């Protein structure tokens, strides 16, 4: 009974992680069912990844910031998201063997590949529309980007980036040749998402993998992606060039002023910030420019600026502690572990580097789908390490 229950818990955990690539509603329903089944079946005690100490500190800083907020009622969303943190515990507790890791990689690639195909089809259809209208609103490289199964292109590209980062080093060492085709599709969809933060995150993660895995082992994935990038070089260069052209795209030109807004918010309340979810309400009071109507002011397009402005330096310190803790663990796993456990450490470090790099240009920590998938993937190395994942 215990073994059967444990296997069912693994399947539910895997289904929940994969569902983040399809629907946040489905993922959260499955998360609720999985946690309920865990309470009923109780096949094993939870394995708490070491990063849960700083994560708990971050949650505490959020609660203090909420209590100090001028309007706590608008900041309950981040508190409700605390339940999503359980995704990491589930992954560390039930993805605990090479067989389960292999199944996780296969299912994740399969679902992400389906999302990739959807995204590539969306890009092709939208590009035909753009060729006939020439409107920025119809441009699939800017304002009409592919979304896959998600509601927004930032979520789609952010998730594809995380899956790419996780599977690239593992495909190089696991005997899953057929699934390399899926990785190529994921990489292609990431390229044609035209989301620069995700590009930078994926490039940084690929660099991490390249340090530990020989190019020869990754060539069957990287060479096709390179060929696709050459074919789309004109569109890619046009998107990159927009980053250096003043006044073309308001979110780019406003990023420096957003950093200044964050600094002013922190200056007014350095310890606790303006309160969770209150940046959007306070933005106009701290903005010094004349084009605020052209900016998206719901957040500051940067994890570190957003958290510092919302939750103060206490919240930012806890968030930095969280990232450093995960990074230290992944490096330790990659250096000291044997066999597949070593490669999960490399994969986890790649995911962390991708997430952190992209987070310099986007508030991906606030995206529920991306957050759940990040915690799922980065917690798997703790599970494969089993007893060594405990505090």
Write up what this structure looks like.
It is a single chain. The chain is globular and about 60 Å long. It is mainly α and 391 residues long. It has 17 helices and no strands. The C terminus is likely disordered. It starts with a helix and ends in a 7-residue tail after the last helix. It is 70% helix and 0% strand. It has one domain. Helix 16 packs antiparallel against helix 17.
Structural class: mainly alpha
- The total strand number stands at 0
Determine the strand fraction and express it as a percent band.
Answer: under 5%
Describe the global form: globular
The run of helices and strands is HHHHHHHHHHHHHHHHH
For the CA atoms, what is the radius of gyration? 21 Å
Return residue spans where pLDDT drops below 50 for at least 5 consecutive residues. Answer: 387-391
Tell me the major beta sheet: none
Distance between the termini: 28 Å
Q: Helical segment tally? A: 17
Share of residues in helices: over 70%
Number of domains: 1
In round numbers, the mean pLDDT is: 92
């Amino acid at each position: 009974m215990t073994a059967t229950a444990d296997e069912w818990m693994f399947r539910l955990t895997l289904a929940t992680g994969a569902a983040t690539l399809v629907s946040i509603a489905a993922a959260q329903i499955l998360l609720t069912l999985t946690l309920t089944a865990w309470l009923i079946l109780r096949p094993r005690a939870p394995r708490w990844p070491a990063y849960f100490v700083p994560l708990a500190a971050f949650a505490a800083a959020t609660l203090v910031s909420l209590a100090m907020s001028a309007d706590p009622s608008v900041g309950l969303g981040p508190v409700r998201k605390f339940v999503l943190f359980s995704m990491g515990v589930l992954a560390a507790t039930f993805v605990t063997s090479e067989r389960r890791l292999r199944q996780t990689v296969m299912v994740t690639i399969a679902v992400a590949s389906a999302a990739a195909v959807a995204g590539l089809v969306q890009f092709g259809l939208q590009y035909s529309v753009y060729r006939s209208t020439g409107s920025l609103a119809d441009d699939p490289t800017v304002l009409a980007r592919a979304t896959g199964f998600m509601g927004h292109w930032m979520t789609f590209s952010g998730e594809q980036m995380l899956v790419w980062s996780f599977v690239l080093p593992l495909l190089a060492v696991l005997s899953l040749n057929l699934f390399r085709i899926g990785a190529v599709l994921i990489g292609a969809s990431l390229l044609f998402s035209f989301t620069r933060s995700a590009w930078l995150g994926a490039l940084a993660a690929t660099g991490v993998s390249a340090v530990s895995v020989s190019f020869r082992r990754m060539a069957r994935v990287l060479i096709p992606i390179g060929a696709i990038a050459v074919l789309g070089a004109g569109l890619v260069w046009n998107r990159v060039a927009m980053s250096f052209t003043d006044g073309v795209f308001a979110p780019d030109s406003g990023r420096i002023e957003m950093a200044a807004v964050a600094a002013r918010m922190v200056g007014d309340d350095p310890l606790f910030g303006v309160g969770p979810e209150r940046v959007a309400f306070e933005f106009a009071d701290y903005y010094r420019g004349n084009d605020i109507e052209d900016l998206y002011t719901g957040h500051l397009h940067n994890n570190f600026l957003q958290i510092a402005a919302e939750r103060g330096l206490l919240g930012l310190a806890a968030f930095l502690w969280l990232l450093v803790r995960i990074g230290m663990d992944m490096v330790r796993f990659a250096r000291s572990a044997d066999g597949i456990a070593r490669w999960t450490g490399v994969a986890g470090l790649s995911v962390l580097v991708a997430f952190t790099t992209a987070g310099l240009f986007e508030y991906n920590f606030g995206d529920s789908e991306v957050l759940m998938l990040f915690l799922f993937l980065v917690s798997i190395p703790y599970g494969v390490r089993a007893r060594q994942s405990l505090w």
